[in-house]
Design a protein that fits this description.
heterodimer, A: alpha+beta, 3 domains, 5-stranded mixed β-sheet, 12 helices, 50% helix, B: alpha/beta, Rossmann fold, 2 domains, 6-stranded mixed β-sheet, 41% helix, globular
Chain lengths: 510, 268
């Protein structure tokens, strides 16, 4: 049998003594503490040391992570503060305008105690509208969207033609100036050859075409008479601005010569080449965040022609099919199970441990197991959704039965109803509101689970569409998928609420 | 033999800590058909336990209950119950609530609908038949509960503080209604109440129960219920015996409450 041993190894790193815990496989035939000799600086660790070092390294790692997260969160604080300021400012402006225009004296406006009065707090519709508009404005201004006016755009990346000059020294003190023509082209523009006059003299003009958000290194001596390596030629100035740099000397730490031109940042590399980084502005690259209209056009395109040979309706249809079938199966088993648990001691005792154990296990944690058991076909995913809905529905039905007031049951008995009639006419209708609440939760969980399951393994489905898109860096489709998932989830919830209102109008009125 | 006979009824609850509560001890009572009995007593005297045993929701530990010649075992349509509140089925309309008993008995709709409509008219809800019960006020809901109980034509009606959750004015109207229904239907009624006035006004017979163990302390036969049928209940209260009987019973219950508080104090 191949066995392992934990070693505590001490070594010096950067003048500091560092102790590390290492798990080592024992070579075959060797026995720890007998024939196996640990490497230099290592001693076998006792059980206690093993655990104390595991926890101390874990603690150190988590502390590092905590600092990283805290730094990220802190860097987001200014933006968050600005957002809150916008909310407050718009609130005060809106209220000022509203009170000026429509000084109402309805019941709510006459309440002096509103802070803490839950009934006085309602969702302000204009606030919701503004909030959504602001999201699109932020989205548009960071992407330079054509949907919003140009003055709201953040500075765009530089696109166009420009030039700068460099001054060359041939190593013997002879200097000449030449021009570098830069053309920055948009991402969707066709590359073309740069045509320019090379001029003459010691230094000749250069040119480069650079895609937006990219940079380029100008090898300026490619067409010059004197070369960097062979002749010791070097650049001494950009746009006439001289700088001092000892090329090839890596003994001392030198500041990279940097020139902030109006259209680009130009640096001189350690080897003497010119690195041109055109101005990238404040906007986000389409790769990270496509503009709203791009996503919309993608939506139209995908709705018409599909994505990767699968129509959007098919993606969406498969996802909804899984959710609905999984939910119906879960409800079909879960509701009777819940009733049995609510009506019989034996069933309650039998299923309590199972339900209470399975309920906190997120269905997502079961995905690997389900794939191993059922493969990536429909059965596995529907089984997963069945499980997701089952426990929620069982618990909802159980509490619906437990929630029936005993006076109702007594009343039904003394009106001559049989057990079956009480189940049919009292217990089931009384538990319906609870079951509907459970169904709403279950549908939400199922929808989330189906997307996650499709991310892992599926042929089609809205989650699968996102995974495929992410492989091709089609950020617009990923974003589109997220929006569709959100809208469909919202739609499902609205539908369930509507069904609840129309089917169990007596909810909460018993 | 018709009527309800309660013979030496005892009820003893075992507690999980090994002790026990003697909720009722040696309660005996004979109720003739058509009698209206009101039951008074301080909290914890076993009134509700007694009613639940008669209804068949609890099994007595000792004694015998006989109704119309057969022993009571479990709930049955022959003993209808009206609860304080919350016993209506809010997923049904007023009419469906009232017709619940006949429907469960499997009777034909044509046979019972006339009676149901008639009862709804008696309790003054003929315009609310199609409403859901949660759309009605508390007093109206109790009228539905009364009509629902009567629609089943029980031999005995058990009322567990049926008017306890109503405001004073509604309560007075409902007391008149209970008397009217009692007279018109000739049902045997047992009514439990906290209110001495209500017990006096509605009880043709009145028993005062005492706690620890729950037992019958004193029984009265009163003329007020008979006088109150179809009359103004406030006039009945001017009867020469009314005030004195009320004071007597109030003092009796007051002394019992004092005693409970006293012994409770001793235990501590």
């Amino acid at each position: 049998m191949n066995s392992s041993i934990n070693l505590l190894c001490t070594r010096e790193r950067l003048g500091e003594i560092v102790t590390q815990l290492r798990a080592v496989n024992l070579p075959e035939g060797e026995i720890a503490g007998d024939t196996f000799t640990p490497p230099d600086g290592c001693v076998p660790a006792t059980g206690w040391e093993t655990f104390s070092y595991q926890f101390s390294t874990l603690g150190a790692e988590l502390w590092t992570e905590t600092k990283t997260v805290a730094a990220s969160a802190a860097s987001a604080l200014p933006s968050l503060a600005i957002y809150v300021l916008v909310i407050l400012a718009s609130m005060f402006i809106y209220r000022a305008i509203k009170t000026r225009l429509t000084p109402t004296r309805d019941f709510a406006s006459l309440k002096t105690v509103t802070f803490g009065d839950e009934s006085a707090v309602r969702s302000d519709f204009p606030a919701s509208v503004l909030s959504i508009i602001l999201i699109f404005i932020i989205w548009g201004s960071f992407t330079g969207s054509a949907l919003i006016p140009g003055f709201l755009h953040l500075p765009a990346p530089y696109v166009g033609e420009s030039s700068f000059t460099y001054t060359l020294d041939d190593g013997d003190g002879n200097r000449d100036q030449a021009e570098v023509f830069i053309r920055v082209i948009a991402a969707d523009a066709m590359p073309s050859d740069m045509v320019f006059d090379e001029g003459n003299g010691l230094a000749r003009n250069d040119g480069a075409e650079i895609g937006v958000y990219l940079s380029d290194i100008i090898v300026w001596d490619g067409n010059d008479d004197v070369k960097r390596r062979a002749d010791g030629a070097r650049i001494v100035a950009i746009n006439g601005e001289e700088f001092d740099y000892d090329f090839g000397n890596d003994e001392v730490r030198q500041a990279t010569p940097t020139f902030n031109l109006d259209f680009a940042r130009v640096t001189i590399t350690d080897r003497g080449s010119i690195n041109v980084v055109p101005d990238q502005g404040w906007q986000m690259q389409p790769l990270y965040l496509p503009a709203p209209e791009v996503v919309w056009n993608r939506f139209i395109e995908i709705a018409k022609y599909g994505y990767q040979n699968v129509y959007l309706t098919v993606h969406l249809g498969f996802s909804l099919f899984r959710v609905i079938v999984g939910f119906i199966l879960g409800a079909a088993v879960g509701i009777p199970l819940g009733y049995a648990m609510g009506l019989s001691n034996w069933f309650r005792g039998w299923f309590d441990p199972i339900v209470e154990f399975m309920r906190p296990v997120p269905p997502l944690a079961l995905i690997p197991l389900v794939i191993i058991w059922f493969g990536i076909g429909e059965v596995g995913k529907i089984f997963l959704l069945f499980l997701a809905a089952l426990w929620i529905m069982a618990i909802a039905a159980r509490s619906g039965v437990s929630g029936v007031r005993i006076t109702k049951v007594h009343a039904a008995y003394s009106l001559g109803a049989s057990r079956w009639q009480i189940l049919r006419h009292v217990i089931i209708p009384n538990s319906l509101p609870e079951i509907f609440t459970g169904a709403r939760v279950a549908m939400g969980v199922c929808w989330g689970t189906v997307v996650a399951a499709e991310l892992v393994a599926a042929e089609e489905g809205i989650g699968k569409m996102i995974t495929t898109a992410s492989k091709f860096q089609n950020t617009d489709i990923i974003l589109l998928g997220v929006i569709i998932i959100g809208l469909v989830g919202f739609g499902i919830d609205m539908l369930m609420r509507w069904a609840e209102r129309s089917l169990v109008p007596w909810k909460g009125k018993g | 033999m018709t009527g309800l006979s309660i013979d030496n009824l005892s009820m003893r609850f075992e507690l999980p800590n090994g002790g026990h509560v003697q909720a009722l001890e040696g309660v005996s009572l004979d109720l003739k058909e058509g009698e209206l009995l009101s039951v008074l007593g301080p909290s914890g005297c076993g009134k509700t336990t007694l009613l639940n045993i008669v209804a068949g929701f609890l099994a007595q530990t000792d004694g015998k209950l006989v109704l119309n010649g057969h022993e009571i075992k479990g709930p049955d349509a022959e003993r209808g119950m009206v609860f304080q509140a919350g016993a209506l089925f809010e997923w049904m309309s007023v009419r469906d609530n009232v017709s619940f008993g006949p429907r469960m008995a499997g009777r034909k709709k044509a046979d019972y609908m006339g009676n149901v409509d008639h009862l709804l008219e008696i309790v003054g809800l003929q315009d609310f038949k199609e409403k859901m019960v949660y759309e009605l006020s508390g007093g109206m809901q109790q009228r539905v509960a009364l009509a629902r109980c009567l629609a089943n034509d029980p031999d005995v009606i058990l009322m567990d503080e049926p008017l306890g959750a109503l405001d004073a004015l509604t309560r007075e109207k409902m007391q008149s209604l209970v008397l009217k229904l009692w007279k018109e239907t000739g049902k045997t009624i047992i009514l439990i109440t906290h209110s001495v006035e209500e017990a006096l006004l509605l009880g043709e017979r009145l028993i005062v129960m005492a706690p620890r163990p729950g037992r019958i302390h004193k029984e009265y036969r009163l003329p007020f219920a008979e006088l109150g049928v179809g009359a103004d209940l406030r006039e009945v209260k001017k009867h020469p015996d009314y005030a004195s009987t009320r004071e007597e019973i109030l003092n009796m219950i007051w002394d019992m409450e004092e005693e409970i508080m006293g012994t409770a104090g001793d235990n501590e």
